[in-house]
Specification:
The protein is built from four helices and no strands. The chain is mostly helical. The longest helix is centred in the middle third of the chain and has 21 residues. It is flat and about 40 Å long. The chain starts with a helix and ends with a helix.
C-alpha cells in the first residue's frame, strides 16, 4: 500500500506479486474449479502469512502461535484455511 499506487502499478512494480497471486489462484482452480474467489484467496493467503509471522514475533496476543514461534505452525494454519475454503 503506497500513496502512489497508480503510478507504481503503471510502472509494473506490482507485476511479480500479481503473477505469483495468479499462479496460486490457478492451482486453487485446479483443486476446485467451482471455487468463486481464487484470486482473493491467493492474495489473502500471502498477506495473512506476513501478518501471522509479524504477530507471532511482535504481538503474540494477536495469534495462536506466539508461545510456539515456529513457521511450521503458521504454515499448518494457512494450509488448513485454504483447504477448508476449497473443499468441494
Amino acid at each position: 500500500m503506497t500513496k502512489q499506487v497508480y503510478e507504481d502499478n503503471k510502472a509494473q512494480l506490482f507485476k511479480p506479486y500479481k503473477d505469483l497471486c495468479a499462479r496460486i489462484a490457478t492451482v486453487m482452480k485446479e483443486i476446485n474449479p467451482r471455487y468463486k474467489y481464487p484470486r482473493s484467496l491467493s492474495s489473502t493467503l500471502l498477506e495473512m502469512s506476513h501478518f501471522q509471522k509479524f504477530f507471532m514475533q511482535n504481538l503474540p496476543a494477536l495469534t495462536d502461535f506466539g508461545n510456539k514461534p515456529d513457521d511450521k505452525h503458521v504454515a499448518a494454519f494457512l494450509e488448513s484455511m485454504v483447504l477448508s475454503c476449497l473443499k468441494k
